[in-house]
Amino acid sequence: RMTSRHVIKKNKWSIDFNSPSRTGVISKVKNNDHLNPVGYTDQKINASGATQVSDSKLISKRSWNIATGPAKQIPMNLFIMYMGGSSISIFPIMILGMMIFRPIKAMMAYKTTFKMFEEDKQAILLKIAWFLGNLSGIVIALWRCHSMGLLPTSPSDWLAFKEHRKQLEYVIGGMNP
Questions:
Q1: Considering the domain boundaries, does residue 16 fall inside one?
Q2: The whole model's pTM is what?
Q3: Which residues contact 33 (CB under 8 A, 6 or more apart)?
Q4: Among candidates 12, 16, 32, which has minimal Cα distance to 24?
Q5: Neighbouring residues of 102: CB distance < 8 A, sequence distance ≥ 6
Q6: Are 70 and 103 contacting, i.e. CB atoms less than 8 angstroms apart?
Q7: Which CA distances in Å does 122 have to 72, 128, 130, 155, 177?
Q8: DSSP string covering 90-155, please?
Q9: Does residue 98 sit within a domain?
Q10: Which pLDDT belongs to residue 130?
Q11: PANTHER family, alphabetically (predicted)?
Q12: Pairing between strand 13-16 and 25-28?
């Protein structure tokens, strides 16, 4: 039993399904205690200190969720890039564009991202973690561009009179270098 006091409220009814009659016995409840769920109490609990601690923990957890969000997207982006293949076609190019421009767009709007966490003790650490996650996404996308041959990295890409590098080996199937 939760309390020994009996609170009588209006219009509380109960149905006894264990009665021998088919419809059950409907009666007005005199004791309200057995209608309340387990753990319920009518008394007001004063836990303002616990609420403030709980709120600060939730804010800290939420801020770290936002800060580590870009790093959590990296495995999915790697999988999408793998599934897109290494050929130069519209789908892998769109994936690369998304991989490059999404973090850049997010970094340009970092003030709105961290607006509500400015007074957090760990604000600098949160921003660094968030920035590194976005930067790693850009680096992975640029690596993918390089592996697909989309970045001008040799002198023959810039100068017309230079010969292109000769490919020393060819890989068929599997993964290309």
A1: no
A2: 0.60
A3: 1, 2, 3, 6, 7
A4: 16
A5: 137
A6: yes
A7: 20, 10, 12, 46, 41
A8: HHHHHHHHHHHHHHHHHHHTHHHHTGGGTTSTTHHHHHHHHHHHHHHHHHHHHHHHHHHT-S--SH
A9: yes
A10: 92
A11: ER MEMBRANE PROTEIN COMPLEX SUBUNIT 4
A12: antiparallel
With respect to residue 128, please indicate whether it lies within any of the assigned structural domains: yes
- Does 74 fall in a domain? yes
pLDDT digits (tens, 9 = 90+) for 89-133: 888 888 889 999 999 999 998 888 888 777 778 888 988 999 999
Based on the structure, what is the number of domains in the chain? 1
Sequence-distant (6+) residues with CB within 8 A of 117 are 59, 63, 66, 123, 126
CA distance 1 to 41: 11
Question: Residues of the chain whose pLDDT is less than 50?
Answer: 1-4, 7-10
Angstrom distance (rounded) from CA 43 to CA 40: 9
**Residue 90's domain spans which residues?**
70-153
